[in-house]
Amino acid sequence: MDLQRNQLGLLGRPGLLLIDMIEGFTDPACALGSESDRAVAAAAQLLAVFRANGWPVFFTTVIYRDNSEAAVFRQRVPALNLLTAGSRWVQVDSRLAPLAGEQVIEKQWASAFFKTELAEQLAAKRVDSLVIGGLTTSGCVRASAVDALQHNYCTVVVEEAVSDRNLQAHRANLFDMHAKYVDVQSLEQTLQQLQQLAAGNATTMEQA
């Protein structure tokens, strides 16, 4: 039997979190990569809306600067050793290139929150809810979405803006995240919510 759950949506100052949309994951030429053009294109649409409204934008990348960092994780998945400082694989995909002032958070493990400054940066930017896109659905997206809930953020994972090397894992994890942790919804529905938020914020400013 399915659990009862409430669709929470977004609050007044959302932040966009694009997880590991880096060359090493978006370029199939890399051992870690897969075809993810659809997710990149959806992320670009979200990025344009957030930039137009002046809402906070955060990227993550994975960088290993010495052999001691995430040693067990790297033993488990040796291809992670490609993600070294200075490598092209750790650069955000050029189609989503960060602008000045947009935070790029370095991480070494799956979650964007684990042993990073993300929580502090979200608080500093007064973010009250999150929109998530990125790679991969069953890995770093899921880990970050669960941690977003555990940091008390209403969170939306945008279905078209996430991708996985395995379609079955992609679908299963979207189902499971929506069942327990976050709102999983379409790009169209998310863009509509963001448009409504922007209109509401504009009305509030006019009345102030």
UniProtKB/TrEMBL annotation:
Instruction: Domain (Isochorismatase-like): give its ranges.
Output: 16-189
Q: Which GO terms describe its molecular function?
A: hydrolase activity
Which keywords does the record carry? Hydrolase
Specify one Pfam family: Isochorismatase
Q: Which InterPro entries match?
A: Isochorismatase-like_dom, Isochorismatase-like_hydrls, Isochorismatase-like_sf
Does the record bear Hydrolase in its keywords? Answer: yes
For the keyword Signal, the answer is no
Name the PANTHER family on file. Answer: ISOCHORISMATASE HYDROLASE (PTHR43540:SF1), PEROXYUREIDOACRYLATE/UREIDOACRYLATE AMIDOHYDROLASE-RELATED (PTHR43540)
List the protein's name: Isochorismatase family protein
